Amino acid sequence: MRVGWLVWLLSGFLLQPIQGDESDAEILLVEAEMFSEYGGWLHDSQFMDQMGSPFLLAHGLGEPVADARTQVEFPSAGNYRVWVRTRDWVATWNAPGAPGRFQVLVDGQPLETVFGTERADWHWQDGGQVTVREGAVEVALRDLTGFAGRCDAIVFSRCPDFVPPHQEPELAAFRRRKLGHSDRPEDGGQFDLVVVGGGIAGTCAALAAARSGLQVALVQDRPVLGGNNSSEVRVWLHGARNVAPFRRLGDVVRELEQSRRAHYGPDNTADLYEDEAKLALVREEANVSLFLENRMNAVEMDGDRIRAIVAQHTRTGRRLRLEGTWFADGTGDGNLGFLAGADYELTLPGRMGRSNLWNVRDTGEPVDFPRVPWALDLSDRPFPGRGAEPDPLKLGGWYWESGFDHDPFEKDEYLRDWNFRAMYGAWDALKNVDRVLPTYRLNWAAHVSGKRESRRLMGDVVVDLDDLLEQRDYPDGFVATGWPVDLHLPDPRYEAGFEGDAFISRALYTRYPQPFRVPYRALYSRNVPNLFMAGRCASVTHEALGATRVMRTGGLMGEVVGMAAAVCQQQQVDPRAVYEEHLDALRARIMRGIGRRPPGPPRPEWLSDRRQNVARTATVRVSSRMDPDRYPPAHINDGCLDWADNEGRWISGDSPPHAVEFSWDAAQTVAAVRIVSGYRQSGDQLIGANRDFVLQYHDGQDWREIPETRVTDNQQFCWSVQFPPIASRRFRLEITTGHDQRARLWEVELYTPEP
Q1: What are 356-403's pLDDT values in tens digits?
Q2: Nearest partner of 42 among 30, 15, 60, judged by Cα
Q3: 492 to 196, 388, 485, 507: CA distances (angstroms)
Q4: pTM score
Q5: How far is CA 525 from CA 338, 404, 464, 515, 574, in A?
Q6: Span 25-70, pLDDT tens digits
Q7: For the stretch 606-645, what's the b/e string if a residue is b when 16 or more beta carbons lie within 10 angstroms of its beta carbon?
Q8: How far apart are CA 499 and CA 97, in angstroms?
Q9: How many whole angstroms separate alpha carbon 684 and alpha carbon 715?
C-alpha cells in the first residue's frame, strides 16, 4: 500500500511561530488538534465544514479528563495576550451552568480566565495577559467538569490590540499563514479511482477496484475505517450478502465483518469492531493509497466532470490535491457529490436522525452523579429504561435518536450535543430523582454520531418504495437487500414537551418480498459523468432508504462500484456507458467476485478421487424446513460445498428430531460419509455444528444404525467416518440436536468403497 501523508509524527512536536513581518512573528497560533499529548481529550473533526477546524473535546462523562499538553516555542520573553477559540455549548438553548469549562495552563500556571463560559457560537474568548519566558514553554488544557468542554485553538500575541479573525475566509487564511501552509494544496498524486469515505461502502469500493488492478485513493476523515461499524460508533452489520445468483457479491463485506458482536450495554466494547483488522486488510493492498484523517472539503471541476478533490489533514491542517479519472462518494452524506454539483435530495422534515450510543455498567460500589441543570430536564418525563424496575440495557440504544426535523448540516454539532443533553438528563433523573441504580456509572458514550439519513445523490434510476413492494426486476439489479423498509420516526410516547426536538425514535416497518435487487444505475450520478456513489447516499427515495441504508447492503454497492470502475478503465468509458454498452462484462465480474474466500473444509485422508459421492444422484426428502425457497433440501446434495456461503445450506424447522433421507431406484453401496454443518457467523467464525446425530440404512423392513456413525456432542463442522460397506436403496441421517432447535447442513456426501 502506498501511504500518502498517512502518519504525522506529532509526538514531541514543537510549535513555533512562522516568520513573516515583525508583528506577525509576535503572534503564535497553537491548534489544539496539534497538541503532542491529548491526555483524556478527544480529537473531534466531525464539524470542520461548519466551524472550520477540528477541536479537542473533554468527553469525560462527568469526570474531568487528563490534561492535554504541548510545547510552544516563544520567540521572546514578555507579556502576551491570550485568545482561546471555544464556546459554551449549552448556551445554544440558553441553558445554565456552562458545563464545558476548562483552563489554559502556561508553564504549569492556570490563566485567571475560565474558558467555555461565554456565547453559543464558536468565538475567540479573551484570556487576558500572561508573562512568559523565551524558548519552549508547556501549554496545557485542563478540563474542569468532564462535560464536553471544547477547544479549537489558542493565540498568543505580543500585540495587545490584535484580535484573531473570526469570519471565513479570513480565519482559514490566518490559520494557513501561521502554520506555514501554502494557499495551494500540495500534490497528492493521480489515481484511477478516488474513493471518499472509508465506511463499509467506501472501503469495499476501494478494495474491489484495487484488486481489479486500478490505482485507488481511499480518503477517510477518521483514524479508523468502517464508519458506523467502527469502535467510534459501534453498530453491527445488517442486511444480506452472497445471495444467489450472485453468490460472490458480498465476499469483500465478509472479509470486513467481525467474528463477535454485541449491541446493547457494556458488552458492546471497542475491541469487537476490529478496527486494526480493517486497516490491515486495506494496507496490504498494493494498489490502495490510504489517506486517513483527511477531510475532503473542496472539489476541482473540469466542466461537469470532477478533476480532483482537496483533502485537509485533520491534525496538521495540510491540504492535498488528489487527481482522479473516476470518483466514488462513500461519505454517507453525499459530500463529494454536493460539492461537485450532483443532483441530490434531502428530506426535511421527517428525516431519519442520528444516534450517539451510550451505556452504563455496574461497578459494585456506590457511585454518585452530579445534578446537571443544563441537560434536558427529564425529572418527570418517561424514557426507555425508566420505570418501577429500571432496565440499564434500554439506556442508550439505537432508539435514542434525534434530528428528525433539523438540517443535518447546519445543525450538525447541535444534534450531537442534543443527544449528549438527553443522555445526561436521563442519567440525572435516574440517579438523583428516582435514586435507582446506585452502583451504576456511565460507562461509554459515542462522541461520533451514527447517522441514518442525509443527502441522497440522484442516479439514472431512483429506487422508490413501489420498486420494493412490486419487486421490480431491473436488468442491472445486482445488490440484494436483506432488510425491511425500516423508517425511524419520533416515538409519540416520549415526544411530549420535545416536539420538533424528539430524542427517542420508533421503527416503522414495511414488509416487501425480499430480496429486491438495487440496480447499478442507482450507483452513479445522473449529471456528474465520472461520479459513482455507494451506501446511504445512493439513488433512492427516503422510503426506499429504509431498506437500503444498512451496511451490508452498502458494502455490496461498494463492491459493484469497484468492479464497475474496472470496466470503465478496461473500456475507457464512464459509469453510464457500463450499463448501456458493457453490462455483460460487469455481470461477469460480479459472478466471479473479487473477495478472498476462506479455506474450504478439510479433506479426509481416506477421500480419494476414485471414490464416488452417490449422494449427488439421490432424491432427498426432509422432515421439515425453515424456508424452502431460501434454504431448500436440494442444497444438501448439490455438490456446491462452499462453507463461506450461508445461503448454500438447508435449514430445518424448529422441532427436533430432524431427518434427511436419501433414496435411489437401485441399491447403492456406501462405505463412508462426510457431513458439513453449522453456519458462518459475522467474520469467519463457524458456529452451530449439528451435535447429536446418527446415519441409518433401510434393510427393506426397518431402519438400522450404521456402526461408528452415532455421535454425541459433536464439535466438528466437517465430520466424517468410514465403515464396512452397506448396500441399500435408502439411507437416513437423523439429527436429534442441532443449534437453536434447528439442524443446518451445507452438504452430506455418501461415498462408495475404495475400488
Answers
A1: 999 999 999 999 999 999 999 999 999 999 999 999 999 999 999 999
A2: 60
A3: 37, 21, 20, 12
A4: 0.88
A5: 11, 26, 16, 24, 11
A6: 689 999 999 999 999 999 999 999 999 999 999 999 999 999 999 9
A7: ebeeebbbbbeebebebbbbeeeebbbbebbbbeebbbbb
A8: 24
A9: 16
